UniProtKB/TrEMBL annotation, chain A:
InterPro entries named in the record: ChsH2_C, ChsH2_Znr, NA-bd_OB-fold, Thioester_dehydratase-like
Name of the protein this chain belongs to: OB-fold domain-containing protein
UniProt superkingdom: Bacteria
Species annotation: Streptomyces broussonetiae
Lineage, top ranks: Bacteria, Bacillati, Actinomycetota, Actinomycetes, Kitasatosporales
Pfam families in the cross-refs: OB_ChsH2_C, zf-ChsH2
Residues covered by the ChsH2 rubredoxin-like zinc ribbon domain: 14-47
TrEMBL record, chain B:
Family matches, as InterPro entries: Thiolase, Thiolase-like, Thiolase_C_2
Any one Gene Ontology molecular-function term assigned to this protein's record: acyltransferase activity, transferring groups other than amino-acyl groups
Listed PANTHER family: ACETYL-COA C-ACETYLTRANSFERASE, NON-SPECIFIC LIPID-TRANSFER PROTEIN-LIKE 2
Transmembrane region(s): none
Domain of life assignment: Bacteria
Record domain Thiolase C-terminal: where: 258-376
The protein's name: Lipid-transfer protein
Lineage: Bacteria, Bacillati, Actinomycetota, Actinomycetes, Kitasatosporales
Length: 135, 384
């Protein structure tokens, strides 16, 4: 499986995820959340940021079901779902992820027929990656 | 009278291409040289007169190597445009701007590509992932098809667009390819049954929603309007040109933009029409970038052929076919002629305005050509 290749801006997201926390970058001056992480606030041009804890609740904004040809580790689990989750307390932050049956379960552990746009999900963590389960 | 910017100041006077196939024996540099020489021959201009080049950042044929191999003169302008298929029209736009303001006099743009027989990144686990992919690839969103399928699903959900609408796009392209002996899909008709029962690539996109994997090269030659009158073919004027990179855009995975369904096409279109003497209603034929069928309804909305959310319905009733409201991708496009990062759409626009297309729109006098929607993009309005 592919693991995140992090950069300086994104590294805190993955460090918090490894501790089982979902946090998003926000401007320390004007409070505007931003994603993906970056050095400067597009709203007020401040370089000060903080990592704000979020509830981990959200709704499915869209989803796809990939089929092979795929990288071998992913092909073995296909078809599986990939979703974009819109966070409840930061609606313009949408995270790509997978809806699974339970934390640590395979990408194809949930019947794709159960996925709907608008469905409520909440975050769980496995191996340093956020995953989503139906709420 | 003062020159009014770029409008009709330059023209495309030569076009050239290699064969298109899943596999061609020549390498990319050889294909590029052949396409460029064919375009210069078509224009009646000697290689030694070329002083400007424009290509894509993803083009593997370096301009130094091309200039040496083909025998160009001293070059005073060269430019590379990023973002893959978003760069096709911008190569022409950059040359038009350079020539219009006197930085050069004869420009060549080209694209050579061996994607049909070359490596595919998603078959190789050792491929180096760029860091922005940290937000998508670990979750199995691996290919452009997956990234655009995500926007497609949301688009269908918000506006009621259907797979039949996507099929209309695939069918129009295939029907035109069936008229074009140079197209990869020349003798391979498509039916609704074939489309609806084909295998999934990334639901909701099936096999026929995806462009071809093709080896091939194309080139075109651009000169100022005075010079253009002395060339072999009637000039095809660059009436308007634009690039588009919207605020807070994030490339193919534009999911965290405020409004992910209004992409770079909207930005390019505003500039394109602002500098044009005509409107979408006056466009006789369109070459719309079609790496995926779903990009077409989005582009139809972006470039103003219909309202927001109406792109799917626009495809109904044969609107995209010859004789329809907006004949589209008349060479077969990326879906059915060849996928050469959209450069075949530029050359087909020229053929239409010369009256020499294999699927000629009678009396075509204006053509829109677009580059990839979903990435920082570009577009051209051509007229004869």
């Amino acid at each position: 499986m592919l693991t995140p290749v992090t950069d300086g801006d994104g590294a805190p997201f993955w460090e918090y995820a490894a501790q089982g926390e979902l946090r998003v970058q926000a401007c320390a001056d004007c409070g505007e959340p931003r994603f993906p992480p970056r050095p400067c606030c597009a709203h007020c041009q401040s370089f000060a940021s903080r990592w704000r804890a979020v509830s981990g609740r959200g709704r499915i904004w869209s989803y796809v079901v990939p089929h092979p040809p795929l990288l071998p580790d992913y092909a073995q689990q296909a078809p599986y779902n990939v979703v974009v989750v819109e966070l409840e307390d930061a609606p313009r932050i949408r995270l790509v992820g997978n809806v699974v049956d339970h934390a640590g379960a395979a990408l194809n552990s949930l019947d794709t027929q159960r996925i709907r746009i608008g469905a409520r999900v909440h975050v769980v963590f496995a191996d340093g990656l956020p995953q989503w389960v139906l709420a | 009278m003062a020159v009014a910017g770029l409008k009709d100041a330059t023209a495309i006077v030569g076009i050239g291409q290699s064969a298109f196939a899943k596999h061609l024996p020549q390498d990319e540099k050889t294909l590029a040289c052949r396409a460029v020489l064919a375009a210069l021959e078509d224009a009646g201009i000697a290689p030694g007169e070329v002083d400007a080049l424009a290509s894509y950042t993803m083009e593997e044929t370096d301009e130094v190597e091309l200039a040496k191999a083909v025998g160009f003169g001293d070059l005073t302008f060269f430019s590379k445009v990023g973002y893959g298929g978003g760069g096709s029209c911008a190569t022409v736009g950059h040359l038009a701007a350079a020539i219009a303001c006197g930085q050069a006099s004869v420009g060549v743009a080209w694209r050579s590509r061996k994607r049909g027989s070359g490596p595919r990144p998603w078959t190789n686990t050792t491929v180096q992932l760029p860091t922005p992919a940290q937000w998508t690839r670990p979750f199995g969103l691996l290919r452009p098809a997956d990234e655009i399928a995500m926007l497609t699903r949301r688009y269908m959900h918000e506006y009621g667009a259907t797979r039949d609408h996507l099929f209309n796009v695939a069918l129009a392209c295939r029907n035109r390819a069936n008229q074009n002996p140079a197209a990869v899909m020349y003798e391979r008709p498509l039916t609704r049954e074939m489309y609806m029962t084909s295998r999934w690539i990334s639901e909701p996109l099936c096999l026929f929603d995806n462009c071809l994997e093709t080896d091939g090269a194309l080139a075109c030659v651009i000169v100022g309007r005075e010079r253009a009158r002395d060339c072999r073919h009637a000039p095809v004027y660059v009436h308007s040109a634009a690039q588009g990179l919207p605020a807070q855009h994030h490339g193919m995975v534009n999911y965290w933009n405020d409004d992910p369904l209004t992409g770079p096409a909207w930005t390019a279109a505003r500039h394109l029409w602002k500098h044009a003497d005509f409107t979408p209603d006056d466009v006789d034929v369109a070459q719309v970038y079609d790496a995926f069928t779903a990009l077409v309804p989005l582009s139809l909305e972006g470039y103003g052929f219909c309202g927001r959310g109406e792109g799917g319905a626009f495809t109904e009733g044969g609107a995209l076919e010859i004789g329809g409201r907006l004949p589209l991708n008349t060479s077969g496009g990326g879906l059915s002629e060849a996928y050469v990062h959209g450069f075949n759409l530029v050359n087909e626009g020229v053929k239409q305005l010369r009256g020499s297309s294999t699927a000629q729109v009678p009396g075509a006098a204006t053509c829109l050509v677009t580059a990839g929607e979903g990435v920082p993009t570009s577009a051209l309005l051509l007229r004869n």
